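Lab channel / #folding
Pinned by the channel admin:
"Please post every new chain as: sequence first, then the structure tokens as a reply. Keep commentary short and put observations after the output so the thread stays searchable."

First post following the new format, from NK:
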Amino acid sequence: MVNSTEDNYLMLSGLQHFQFCRRQWALIHIEQQWEENVKTIEGQHLHQKADQPFTREKRGERLIVRAMPIQSHRLKLNGICDVVEFIKNPDGIELAEVEGSYLAYPVEYKRGKPKKGDEDVVQLVAQAMCLEEMLLCDVDTGYLFYNEIRHRIEVPITAELRNKVIEMAKEMHHYYENRYTPKVKTGPHCKSCSLQEVCLPRLMNKRTVKSYIERKLNE
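Reply from TO:
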């Protein structure tokens, strides 16, 4: 279980923000700023269905655990798995109060449809790495369930993705320890960001601020 005394641990869910935009991550996790938009509200509604703390459900050869606390001492991250499915398999691990051996598969629930980038993928991979460290097992596959398409996508937990998560975690801790909010280039992705009204006026770039003001005046 997650040790709440680990004050220097960061939120695993921040990997998604960090992959999308390092500045967005810093505004949320370092400067503690947040603004709701339709996407964040829809996402919270979807997670309410998955996040039912400490519930376990047995379906034949499958054990479903919801809102499972996870942690990695290596990554110095902690968080919650929406769902962890344990599938009975002789090559798996033994679980407390459950007969047989099981393989673990993290399942992350997302609003919308699959993204072009790796925002969701890196979060899922980090969850798999936490489970491996906690349960002393191998997790080679995870799943992303998208509410818009009502379908889950299988994600192989590759060595390349693991290394990417390790490097991202290191960078996140470096920024956090130094209380550093990076500057970034603006782009089309800014339009879908819940923090654009907070972020854009504060960018240390005169050209960007000028274009922002002109856009607001024309609205």
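NK: The chain is about 35% helix and 30% strand.
TO: also worth noting, The longest strand covers residues 77-95.
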